[in-house]
Amino acid sequence: MCRFIETIQVRDGELRNLTHHNRRMNETRKAVFGVSEQLDIRRYAEGCPVHGIHKCRVVYDREICEVAFSPYIMRPVHSLRLAYSDTVDYHYKSTDRKELEALYSLRGNQDDVLIVRDHLLTDTSIANVALEKEGVWYTPATPLLKGTKRAWLLEQGLLAECNIPADDIYSYSRIALFNAMIDFGFLFLDINRDTVIHI
């Protein structure tokens, strides 16, 4: 049976953005298993670390199966290579990452891949993205995964959704990578032919 995960940032004992994590988990449970009962991760998060930044990994199917905490160490990303797949599907945050791992293996000398599906930019192997043009940040309208941080940023009006053709990438000035663990504004890359490899 397939299982799914939520990865939640814990900062000084606080489970960050929990409303969006609970919402996505319960929407996934309903869509995949037909379960309408609402679960709250907070009720299962005993032993939450109270100092520093940690990762809370929640594994679930119909019910929550496992909750584990670990110190968070960010994987550095200084460059990206575009990787192409029109069949990759990760719209539910599953424990099965085989397709993403296969695309990640195509990164060559770069730190990660920026995945292109149907000629449009989506996500990296670990993060949603936004691209800056003339002071406005645009995030792909059809990401591989609708991340919880992405949902929050859209609600706050900090991002605008649009389709971003891969061939247009160099018309943007910067790219931001973000996810539940990487706050928006923490990881920026200038977009040029050394940092983003388009082949």
Sum up the structure in keywords.
five-stranded mixed beta sheet, 3 helices, D-amino Acid Aminotransferase, Chain A, domain 1, 2 domains, 199 residues, alpha+beta, D-amino Acid Aminotransferase, Chain A, domain 2, 13 strands, four-stranded antiparallel beta sheet, Aminotrans_IV, lyase activity
Named CATH architecture of the largest domain: Alpha-Beta Barrel
* Number of separate structural domains: 2
Q: Could you spell the SSE succession in H and E letters? A: EEHEEEHEEEEHEEEE
CATH topology of the largest domain: D-amino Acid Aminotransferase, Chain A, domain 2
**Spatial gap, N to C terminus:** 37 Å
Question: Please, how many helices?
Answer: 3
Helix content: 10-25%
Protein name: 4-amino-4-deoxychorismate lyase
Organism: Bacteroides stercorirosoris
GO molecular function: lyase activity
Pfam family, one: Aminotran_4
Describe what this molecule looks like in 3D.
This protein has three helices and 13 strands, in the order ββαβββαββββαββββ. The chain is of the alpha+beta class. It folds into two domains: 4-71, Aminotransferase class 4, branched-chain amino acid transferase, N-terminal domain (D-amino Acid Aminotransferase, Chain A, domain 1); 80-197, Alpha-Beta Barrel (D-amino Acid Aminotransferase, Chain A, domain 2), CATH 3.20.10. The longest helix has 16 residues, at 18-33. The radius of gyration is 17 Å and the shape is globular.
